[in-house]
Every structure is written in structure tokens, then in C-alpha cells.
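Checklist before submission:
- one chain only
- standard amino acids only
- sequence pasted in full

Submission:
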Amino acid sequence: MIRECSRCPQRFLLLLATIALLGLTGCSSLNPENWRALPQPLTVFHSTGGELAIRSQTVDGPRMKSGFSEGFFTVADKNTLTAVMYEGPADAPTQAVTIRMFWQPKAGRTPIDDTATNATIHYIIFTGDNREEIGIYSGAGFVYPNSGLEGDKLVAGVWQSSLRLADKSKGFHDHLGQATLEGRFTAKRDDAAIEPTLHALYVQIRERLGRSRLVGADADPSLSRAD
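Returned file contents:
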């Protein structure tokens, strides 16, 4: 007698998803160095969001993991994109991240090593009883799109992203120091949503810092550490 397998449909879907990912990423996905850039197989069927983890580079340092609830991206050309993701409501997020990729790696042709960076990143943490404190970690890292930029959905991996505290409100306590950001995210293309989403983020930042602070595509991540 053949026993019913309740997990067979899920396993079959997982197999199909894995095959689809190999088709999207080409032979470079067979390179172990690139596996960390691949999304989880079922991620390609999800809407937006993803999981990014920011952790201290010190031994046994703290680590924060975020599952973003919304993510948008827009494309300026075939190599340049801007992505914005946030956790919680847009006008009162708990965490947010902006990513600008300024050149696109080519599968099987772009060397990926510990010194490679192709994106600037700003990671914003809201904390305190009423999220009244803010810390902005800025830097650069490597972003590898696992889907084409011409589509309505972006699936990408982030790694080797070195961040440091670039700005903060008076009551924000930096527990990370020099930090690393890694993970995967999915964003939907919405050219009209990027500007109002960034504007809402700017408003939240200005209210907490008492001054304007850009964290978008043209923001400079090389600002000195806040005192």
C-alpha cells in the first residue's frame, strides 16, 4: 500500500523552485562562493520583504535580524537600482534600509571576493519606548540580483557589507560598533512609491535628529561617526 505523503506537494514545489533558481542565476550558482547570494527557494514566490541580519564584528557581539514587511525598488538603467525596505508601517517603522546598486555583476564573469562592493547601504534603527531614538549605520557592500532588473520583482542577496554608525539621536546607544549586514530580500518594482517612501523616512529621521539627513541613493556613506 502506498502511504499518503502530506509533504509531497511541498517537496515538489521546492524542487521546481530550485530548478527555476538555477535557470535564473546560470552556472555561477554552482559556485559555492555564490550560494550565500541565492534566496531560499520559496522566497521567489513571496511578495516583498526578506531577512537581513546586522551584527557586530566583535567576537560574540550582538546581532539583529529583521524581516522587512515591505520593499520597493526602481531602476535608473541596466546597472543602477535603488531599493527601500522597512519593517512596520511606513510612517512609523522600527527598522529601514536603503540600498543603491551602482553596477550589476554578471553571472560567471564577475569575480566575487572579500573586497568587492557594488552598492551603498544605509541601515536605520528606531528604538526607545516610542521609537523616539534613531541610529543610522552606513557603508558599502555587495548586492547580487538573482532576478533581472527589467522585471516587476527583485530577488537579491547582500553580503560583505561593512557598516558603521554614521549618525544618531542623543539617546541612541550603539551596541554594534563596526557591523556587517548580510541576508536576502525581495522587492517589487514601484517607481512611483520610492519618492514618497523615502520622504516618509526622511520625516521620521528629521523628527528624531532635529535636522535633515539623507539616506537615499545620493547620500554619502562616508560621513564621520557621530559622537
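Reviewer check: Residues 8-209 form one domain.
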